[in-house]
């Protein structure tokens, strides 16, 4: 008997899931499928933390599906091979899936699957999964289309699904031959956990979001921490947008009754902007799937001529640069799989301007560390923070200033860089300035217990910025940047800078 396949990709949920919703009301048995594709495992941006997280989210999804009468086949196979095998056994009439925005390999794989479907007379229906609009050539209409999509009704999870009855594949880390890489404070997988995280953010953690997001310590609790759930699709962006809008409406009503709503409205307004950024950045990869290998403005990239320096790369990627705040951020990221936006930007900026390292290699290292790795956001941000788009302000962060601003007493540093445990506050950001006798006294001799700075932070950064502006100059390069803007630039007007509490956020908005 013919069947329908619901192919789960980065959408491991049953709620607000068009392919599953539609399949549940078709008159054919439904086989739910999730693939761990060998081709994907071979990509340089893939890390065991991603695969284990996806598998754990998939196991949670399977429990939900079982409650409806369906199941989930978790196969360790490339897509064509899996489809061939299922087709030979059951005859696939239709495949339903969400659209996927990934790098070239997934784009090419989808083209092959599409051809296979034509050859085998299988219908493949793809549904939008977020605010990314397929087939767009420029940005003029993007915001309207995205906002319209975010306003559509949420779909309820199907109550009954006529699942295909057969033995189900069940890939595990062990069966695919992948060793685990453990991270600490790992989130709880699955769609119920995603809803809990959203609820706790909107009921308590989020009030100081706007003022805490740039501190690596405060952001741990006060940022939403939804990103890993978005990257596996355990929750839809639309659900988060709508739930946040409802909360904002209630807050506005309360405020109009004279109630004190604290910092909630400002924080949630910042949060909504970031939810829009999520899709804005993914749209770039949708329109240019080579963003992980080719700079948005290749002329700038070529003009920069950054070269790999193994020693610098090792120090940067391991968190042994000799800049305590930077090292704390990198070590914290490696240990936990997460760090806040500002520090991600600083890490990329330090690699690109201070150390003049090529963005592809540094971007790959970060991709492998982020549990929430989302190619569309990631490679767009890597382009921005390495100065290779030609349409964004050159933003070269001082790692020492960032440390003083966001970790004034060095608590975060001491937490992650044990060598600095007894260094006095006065020297915590620049330990190389410590007199020798204090270095001996606190067991932190620079060059022995903790490295000397890999380069002079300020002068290397200035030189990096100078070289970047030099690479941006020239008629041909500027023309190429104009084209980048036409294709990818945000059409949103820059935020007006305000005084006081809001000022910090309008500065962030420039990063858009
Ligand atoms: C070099 C670099 C690489 C990055 N790589 C990724 C990545 O692989 N995956 C990823 O999800 N984010 C990435 N970001 C963006 C951002 O740092 C993370 O989305 C955020 O830190 C995730 O934590 P959160 O869910 O608590 O975010 P919150 O601050 O609570 O924001 C809510 C959601 O908004 C979206 N968002 C927030 N900031 C941004 C932003 N600047 N750009 C686009 N969307 C945003 C995310 O979906 C996030 O989950 C990167 C940023 C930089 C500078």
Q: What distinguishing features does this structure have?
A:
globular; five-stranded parallel sheet; 51% helix; binds flavin-adenine dinucleotide; Rossmann fold; 5 strands; 24 helices; disordered C terminus; 3 domains; mainly alpha; DNA Cyclobutane Dipyrimidine Photolyase, subunit A, domain 3; 512 residues
Give a written overview of the molecule.
Helix 11 packs antiparallel against helix 12 (264-287), helix 12 crosses helix 18 (375-385) and helix 13 (298-304) packs across helix 22. The chain has helices spanning 18-24, 38-41, 48-66, 79-90, 104-119, 142-150, 191-203, 209-212, 219-222, 227-231, 237-256, 264-287, 298-304, 310-318, 324-336, 341-354, 359-369, 375-385, 399-406, 411-416, 436-441, 457-472, 475-488, 503-509, and strands at 3-8, 30-35, 73-75, 92-98, 123-127. It is mainly alpha-helical. Helix 1 (18-24) links the parallel strand 1 and strand 2 (30-35). The protein has 24 helices and five strands. The protein is globular, with a radius of gyration of 24 Å. Strands 3-2-1-4-5 form a five-stranded parallel sheet, sandwiched between helices. Flavin-adenine dinucleotide binds next to helix 10, helix 12, helix 16 and helix 18.
């Amino acid at each position: 008997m013919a069947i329908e396949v619901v192919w789960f990709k980065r959408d491991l949920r049953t709620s607000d899931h068009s392919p599953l919703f539609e399949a549940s009301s078709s008159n054919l048995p439904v086989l739910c499928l999730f693939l761990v594709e060998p081709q994907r495992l071979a990509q340089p941006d893939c890390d065991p933390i991603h695969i284990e997280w996806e598998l754990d989210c998939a196991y949670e999804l399977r429990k939900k599906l079982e409650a409806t009468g369906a199941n989930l086949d978790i196969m360790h196979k490339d897509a064509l091979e899996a489809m061939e095998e299922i087709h030979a056994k059951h005859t696939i009439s239709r495949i339903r899936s969400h659209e996927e925005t990934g790098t070239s390999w997934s784009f090419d794989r989808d083209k092959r699957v599409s051809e296979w479907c034509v050859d085998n007379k299988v219908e493949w229906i793809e549904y939008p999964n977020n605010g990314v609009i397929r087939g767009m050539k420029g940005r003029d209409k993007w915001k309207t289309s995205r906002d319209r999509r975010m306003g559509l009704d949420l779909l309820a999870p199907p109550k009954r699904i006529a699942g295909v009855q057969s033995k189900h594949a069940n890939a595990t880390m062990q069966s695919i031959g992948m060793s685990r890489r453990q991270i600490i404070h790992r989130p709880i997988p699955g769609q119920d956990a995603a809803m809990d995280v959203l609820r706790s953010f909107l009921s308590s953690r989020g009030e100081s979001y706007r003022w805490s997001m740039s501190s690596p310590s405060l952001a741990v609790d006060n940022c939403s921490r939804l990103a890993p759930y978005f990257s596996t699709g355990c929750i839809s962006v639309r659900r988060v947008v709508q739930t946040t809008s409802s909360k904002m409406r209630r807050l506005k009503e309360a405020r109009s009754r004279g109630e004190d709503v604290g910092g909630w409205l400002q924080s949630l307004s910042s949060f909504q902007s970031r939810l829009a950024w999520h899709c804005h950045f993914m749209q770039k990869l949708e329109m240019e799937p080579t963003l992980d290998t080719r700079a948005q403005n290749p002329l700038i990239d070529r003009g920069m001529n950054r070269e790999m320096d193994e020693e610098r790369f090792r120090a940067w990627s391991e968190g042994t640069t000799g800049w305590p705040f930077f090292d704390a951020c990198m070590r914290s990221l490696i240990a936990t799989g997460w760090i806040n936006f500002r520090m991600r930007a600083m890490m990329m900026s330090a690699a690109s301007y201070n150390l003049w390292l090529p963005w592809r290699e540094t971007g790959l290292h970060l991709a492998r560390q982020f549990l929430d790795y989302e190619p569309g956001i990631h490679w767009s941000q890597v382009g921005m923070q390495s100065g290779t788009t030609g349409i964004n302000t050159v933003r070269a962060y001082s790692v020492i200033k960032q440390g003083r601003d966001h970790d004034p007493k060095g608590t975060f540093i001491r937490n992650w860089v044990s060598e600095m445990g007894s260094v006095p506050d006065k020297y915590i950001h620049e330990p190389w300035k410590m007199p020798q006798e204090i270095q001996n006294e606190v067991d932190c001799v620079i060059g022995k217990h903790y490295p000397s700075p890999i380069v002079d932070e300020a002068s290397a950064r200035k030189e990096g910025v100078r070289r970047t502006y030099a690479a941006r100059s020239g008629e041909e390069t500027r023309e190429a940047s104009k084209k980048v803007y036409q294709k990818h630039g945000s059409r949103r007007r820059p935020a007006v800078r305000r005084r006081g509490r809001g000022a910090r956020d309008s500065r962030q908005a420039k990063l858009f």
